[in-house]
Amino acid sequence: MPFPEQRPRRLRRTERLRALVRETRVTPANLIYPLFVVPGAKKRTEIGSLPGCFHVSADEAAREAREVESLGLAGVILFGLPAHKDPVGTEGYTDDGVVPEAVRAIRAECRDLLVMTDVCLCEYTSHGHCGVVDGEDVRNDATIELLARMAVAHAKAGAHIVAPSDMMDGRVRAIRRALDGNGFTDVTLLSYAAKYASAFYGPFREAADSTPQFGDRRTYQMDPANAREALKEVALDLEEGADMVIVKPALSYLDVIHRVRERFDVPVAAYNVSGEYAMVKAAAQKGWVDEQRMATEILTSIRRAGADIILTYHAKDFARWTK
User: Fold this and answer.
1) N or C: which end of the chain has fewer CB within 10 A?
2) Could you state, in order of their start, the residue ranges of all structural domains in the chain?
3) 25-321 maps to which CATH number?
4) Active-site residue 232, yes or no?
C-alpha cells in the first residue's frame, strides 16, 4: 500500500520501539579483546598507535582478563612479544614463552573466560615475516611444522582456542594433526582463512613489533581485490579441520564476511583491526566524531554482514557503554 497507509517511521518513534524491532544486535558476548603480552612482571605500557591498549606482562594480562570477564566479554586473544628474536622464531614455540606463561596466568584467575592465542611467527622472527625465510622467499612447508609446534605449546598451557594467522597453505591440517596427536582433540581451531594484505595493519605492527625487515606479505596474504578467492581459502581450511574461520580486516571487507556467512554453515569471525580502531580514536581525539556512536555503528555493521564473533580493540569500551 502506498503512503499514507504505509508509514515506516511509526517503528522509529522512540528508543524502546526502535530497540524492540532492531534486526541486528551486538553484545559483549560476541566480542574478543586482544592483548599484547611482554616478558617480565608488573609491566603495563600504553601503545602509542593504539590509545587505551597496553603491552602487559603475564600478571598484568591476568588482571586485564579479570576485567574482561567482569564486563561479560567472551574472551581474549593473546599476541606475544618475546625477549629475543631469531630467524626461525624459536621463542614462539617454547613451553615457557610469553604466550604460554600468560595463558597459564589467565586460566588461574578466570574460570569461564575463553583464552585464544594467535599462532604466527611474525612477532618472534628477527626478519618480521610470518614464516621461515630462504633469501627473501618465505618457505611454506618449513613454516607449518613450526606453527604446529606453537599451537601445541599454547594448548599445553591451557588455551581453549588456537588461531593461526600466517596464511601458509596447509597449516590448518598440520596444526589439527599435531593437536590431536598430542591429546588436544578438544582444542578449537579458529583459522584466519581470509586474511588480506591490508594497509590497515600499521598500528598492530608497531604494537607487535612485527614489521617485515624486507619486502612485504603479499606473497602469502590475500590480494584486497579478490573475493571469490576468499571462499576457496575458507573451503580449504574447513576441509583441513578448522572449526571456525576469520575474515580480516573487517570494515573494508564486509562483502567478504557476507559471502562467507552465506556459503558456509560454521561460526564466522571478523577482526576489526588496529587501523580501523586507530582512525576512530584519532578522529574522536580531534573532536571530529562521536567515538561511542561511530564504534557501535562499525561493530553493528560487522555483525549485520554476518560475523558471529568480532575481535576488536573497542571491546572493553563497548561493554562499558552498554552496561
Assistant:
1) N
2) 25-321
3) 3.20.20.70
4) no
